[in-house]
Amino acid sequence: MPAGTGVAIVGNAPETGDHAARIDAADLVVRFNNAPGLGRQAGTRTTHLVLVNHGGQMREWLEDPDFVRRRVVAEAGAFLLPFPPKPPEADPSEDGRDWTGEAAARLRPLGCPVAVLPEPLTREAAALVRREAGRPAAPSTGYLTAFALLAVTRPEAVRFDVFGFGFAGWEGHAFDAERRWFEAMAAAGRLRLHPVRN
Prior knowledge:
Blueprint: E1 5-10, H1 20-24, E2 28-32, E3 48-50, H2 56-63, H3 71-74, E4 79-81, H4 100-107, E5 114-116, H5 119-133, H6 141-151, E6 158-163, H7 175-187, E7 192-193
Parallel strand pairs: 1-2, 1-6, 2-3, 3-4, 4-5, 6-7
Helix pairs in contact: 5-6, 5-7
């Protein structure tokens, strides 16, 4: 990314607050999954859309004939799948099934790049949050993406603003540990964390 690039990482907390102008002013706007708040308090632009590629949510999207016509999908400039493909011998159970190939095949006709986060980065991010949480935990797509973006950019080159991260939801994520990581990155000057409305 060019020096001085501004990146808005927009989470899915419903109480994001009205940050539309600040989000839309960023050079890059990264959103996740169904992107609640798009078109309202969370702004109107999506340059990169991160879509969970393991488990039942992607299966539902693939079964939906209108999936690629949803606003956030149709207007995205690029797609990022946060979990690396699983090896063939991996557990094929529905909760963790790998849909990477099917998702990429569905998205590529839109003419936008489709990328997968590098496996070494996702492994490092997952190990860090597991150690911090003191228990097995699946990293959230928001945490994985932010971790990867910060890992591959120079601190002086990119300004990261994080909006709409409520650190709550599915119990399989270690949201307290993820919150501490974001707060540590904010304290180190790597990002600005905009708290959600109380």
